[in-house]
Amino acid sequence: MLFFSYFKELVGKEVTVELKNDLAIRGTLHSVDQYLNIKLENTRVVEQDKYPHMLSVKNCFIRGSVVRYVLLPPDGVDVDILHDATRREARGG
Amino acid sequence: MGLTAITEREGEPRLDTENGEETRHVQPKTAIVLGNRTPEQLGTLYITTKRLIWLSDVDKQKGYAVDFLSISLHAVSRDPDAYQLPCIYAQIETVESDGYGDELEDQNSTNGENLDLSQVTEIRLVPSDPNTLDDIFKVLCTCAELNPEPDGELEGEGDWIFSSEDMMNANLGAVNGMSVQHGVGDWDYEEDELVNHIGHSNGLDHSLHENILELQIDDARFEDALEPEDEVQRSRT
């Protein structure tokens, strides 16, 4: 559940979601659920040449299981807290 | 997996009621567009707790269905550059397009009748009344959330089994790694893979990709990344 809690902190920030099919979508994180389904707002596709039809959809729901990476804004990450939380989670605590 | 044809109906689509499938939304007068083909004649969209179903109003033997498990993403598309009419856009995960599907690019340009439905990777739903798009989007979100990935089907990556002892060892490694100075940038783990790219660009001002922190959210992959650490710990003992 670590990443669920963690991503919830990032709501309202700009993130880029890279899917396992290589599509990368940038947008404002609207919400995330326990399955790491991600809702983005005001999205745009990073490589528009490759995916012209995906051009700026307003709201977008991305299935958690197709997400490969979430690229985070640097100022949205407190490395120390994340580090601690990761270790706690690994310990099963 | 993927889009399938529905050729039988009893007025409404036949639902898998034994497994609790229920209709959550019905949207009449909705066209469906498969890939880049021309829109089909009007039909009715049914959103159930398990599937998205479209049945033609004209041809009673024509219809399509796709499981929520196969819908990678869905979105409201209102940009006329993306599609001339406001619509719901959905991407469908097909077996072959799972990853590197470049060789399948042609499929969408096919305008012949014998389209392989299982290879359709995109659909658009165009309701006659565009004001309904937001409602349809919301129902799709709700129903997608009802269909999480079945356990143990994470692309064969769920094979890494960690005993609690392994986890403890991995932890010790992480703690040892903490002796590095902070704020220098990268965390100087002996096994960098342990944390993958988390925090790898502190204070550096490079391209977007370097400037943004990457975080893997797939648990199975995360465990995968721990594996080298695990091996090292074993060889030390």
Brief description of this entry?
With 93 residues, chain A is an alpha+beta fold.
CATH topology of chain A, what is it called? SH3 type barrels
Morphology call of chain B: globular
- Quick one: overall form of chain A? elongated
Which radius of gyration of chain B do the C-alpha atoms yield? 24 Å
Chain-averaged pLDDT of chain B: 73
CATH topology of the largest domain in chain B: PH-domain like
Class from helix and strand fractions of chain A: alpha+beta
Helix-strand topology string of chain B = EEEEEEEEHHHEH
Largest sheet features of chain A: 5 strands, antiparallel
Describe the main β-sheet of chain B briefly.
8 strands, antiparallel
Kindly provide the name of the CATH class of the largest domain in chain B.
Answer: Mainly Beta
Write the H/E string of chain A, N to C.
HEEEEEH
> Which class best fits the helix and strand makeup of chain B?
alpha+beta
The oligomerization state is heterodimer
Top CATH class of chain A: Mainly Beta
- Gyration radius of chain A, in Å: 14 Å
Question: Could you explain how this protein is built, in words?
Answer:
- The complex is a heterodimer of chains A (93) and B (237).
- The N and C termini of chain A lie close together (11 Å).
- Chain A has a 5-stranded antiparallel sheet with strand order 4-3-2-1-5.
- Chain A contains 2 helices and 5 strands, in the order αβββββα.
- With 93 residues, chain A is of the alpha+beta class.
- Chain A has helices at residues 2-8, 79-90; strands at 14-19, 24-32, 38-45, 59-62, 67-72.
- The longest helix of chain A is centred in the C-terminal third of the chain and has 12 residues, at 79-90.
- Chain B has 237 residues and is of the alpha+beta class.
- Chain B folds into 2 domains: 3-145, PH-domain like (Roll), CATH 2.30.29; 164-236, no CATH class.
- Chain B contains 4 helices and 9 strands.
- Chain B has helices at 133-145, 164-177, 208-211, 219-236; strands at residues 3-5, 23-34, 43-48, 51-56, 63-67, 71-77, 87-92, 122-127, 213-216.
- An 8-stranded antiparallel sheet of chain B has the order 1-5-4-3-2-8-7-6, covered by helices on one side.
- The longest helix of chain B has 18 residues, at 219-236.
- The radius of gyration of chain B is 24 Å and the shape is globular.
- In chain B, 30% of the residues are buried.
